Amino acid sequence: MCLAEPKKAIRFALVATLSSVLGGLFGYGIGFLLYESVGVWLLGILGLSESFPVAACYIREQGALAVFFAAGTPVPFKLMTITAGFIEMNLLTFTLAALAGRALIFMVVGILFQIFGAPIKRIIDQYLGLLTSLFVVLVVGGFIAFTQFAKGDDNSDAPHICDAATLEQVSE
Fold first, then answer.
1. CB atoms within 10 A of CB 55
2. Which of 12-16, 73-77, 155-159 has the lowest mean pLDDT?
3. Vertex 148, ends 143 and 154: CA angle to 5°?
4. Got the DSSP string for 150-169?
5. Closest Cα to residue 105, out of 79, 71, 150?
6. Residue 98 · residue 67 · CB < 8 Å
7. Per residue in 47-58, pLDDT tens?
8. The pTM is what?
9. In whole angstroms, what is the distance from residue 45 CA to residue 12 CA?
């Protein structure tokens, strides 16, 4: 839509941001109110059941920062929203972190289309493969850098406690 009407790109980005956060609130509600009946089923269909305890552990540990990173990266945001509800994360904190992370993604694109308009379309058409590859390298590099810096100064290669989290541990 931004390609078709670059002058409305920021409006489209705002709608996408708010709609995504609203969807995140539905996910939060599923985790908070309906985990046993709907959440388990939905995570199973999405193939995220095994990731759930790990996500719950990280959200408990990192809070808003974990939600912000999930909302602003290709990490499955559905998993994070359901998990945040399940662990009963503060709703305002969750909403603000989700809004900031989702706005980061959508608004940057909207602003670029608003500023550059049609020329950005030509660049995307010509360099889509290269830009996509570059984006993937940057995201993976960012994850690697984040995990290395998150280890702190302990210099040990011991796995993080959340890497082996179980549902029983996170539901306590």
1. 25
2. 155-159
3. 155
4. HTTT----PPPGGGG--HHH
5. 71
6. yes
7. 878 888 888 888
8. 0.70
9. 30
